[in-house]
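Let us practice reading a record.
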Amino acid sequence: MAGNESQTDWRKMLDEVHERIRIELAGRTLPAPEDIIRQGREDRDVQLFMALGNDALRPIASKHGLKWTKRNASNLSAKLCVSDREIIA
C-alpha cells in the first residue's frame, strides 16, 4: 500500500536527519529548550523596554522599588513581566 511506503520514507528521512545532526554536533550537547526560550524572552523584553526609552521605564521601575539602568534591563524586565503577554505598568 502507498500509505505504508510513505510512512517508511518519512521515517527513513527522519532517521537520516537525526544522524546528520549527531555528526554535526560531534558529541556536543545542546542547551535545554527551556533555557533557549527563556533567553529569547529575556532578549525580547530588553528590546521592548529599550524601545520605551529611559523616561518611560524609570517611573515603572521606581513604582516597583527597582532601579532602572541599561545594565540591569533584563532583570528589571523579568521582575516587571507578570507573564510572557503582560507587563506591569
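A brief commentary: The chain has a mean pLDDT of 75.
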